[in-house]
Amino acid sequence: MLRYKYIGLTGQLAAGKDLCAKILEETFNMKVVTMSEIIARELDRAGLEATRENLRRYGLYLRVIDGPDAVMRRAIRAVRESERRGEKYSGYVINGLRNIEEALCFWREFGEKGLIVGVVASRDIRFRRIKLRRGIKDTGVDSFTDFFKSDIEELTKFHLGDVIAAADILIVNDGTLEELKEKLIMAISLRECLQQAL
């Protein structure tokens, strides 16, 4: 059982956020709330397809009209509704933090029971992963140039680098799934030990 009941995940496209969410879900019985799925549901209600480009544009739109932490507030609402229903999870993973305002909202809501994990990998490794995903998941990326533009857009429009830099823990995902699982669980455990020692 983890001390951290709420874990936020951040990172660039194909860094390994979804894998980390799956590891936490399967290892610790945590419920995963994915911020892009929250946006996708709103797109569906509006009759729009949930492509990567539509998700990105609508996410920006929500953050403009409802504040930069708009999607995080919706994710927190989903977590609190699950808790009110008495769903039996050891905790919650909020996957897909995009900006520092979302991180601040997360920490305000969850305090010491919250932890943000940044997942990083080199651009080359992430691009290879995207090429393997083709047809499985819409990435909106057809070439390395598209991929580079997508990276720059996430860093400039969303300021994704700020939330990655502010993460409580940083995981370098440059190896196998087993290595990622070991790094993630070890880093969280070490962080828990340090917190208890303070």
Structure description:
This protein has 198 residues and is an alpha/beta fold. The protein has helices at residues 17-28, 35-45, 52-66, 70-84, 100-110, 123-133, 144-157, 160-166, 177-197; strands at 6-11, 30-34, 91-97, 114-120, 169-172. The protein has a single domain (6-192), classed as P-loop containing nucleotide triphosphate hydrolases (Rossmann fold), CATH 3.40.50.300. The chain has a 5-stranded parallel beta sheet, with helices on both faces. The radius of gyration is 16 Å and the shape is globular. The two termini are 20 Å apart. The relative contact order is 0.21.
Write the layout of secondary structure elements.
Layout: E1 6-11, H1 17-28, E2 30-34, H2 35-45, H3 52-66, H4 70-84, E3 91-97, H5 100-110, E4 114-120, H6 123-133, H7 144-157, H8 160-166, E5 169-172, H9 177-197
Parallel strand pairs: 1-3, 1-4, 2-3, 4-5
Helix pairs in contact: 1-9, 2-3, 4-5, 5-8
Task: Describe the structure concisely for a colleague.
This protein has about 200 residues and is α/β, with parallel strands linked by helices.
- Largest sheet report: 5 strands, parallel
Given as residue ranges, the uncertain stretches (5+ residues, pLDDT < 50) are: none
The secondary structure category is alpha/beta
Rg over C-alpha atoms, rounded to the nearest angstrom:
16 Å
The name of the CATH superfamily reads P-loop containing nucleotide triphosphate hydrolases
Number of strands: 5
**What's the overall geometry?**
globular
**Total number of distinct structural domains:** 1
> Span from first to last CA?
20 Å
Strand sequence of the main sheet, in spatial order?
A: 2-3-1-4-5
Regarding CATH, which class? Alpha Beta
| Count of helical regions | 9
Arithmetic mean pLDDT: 92
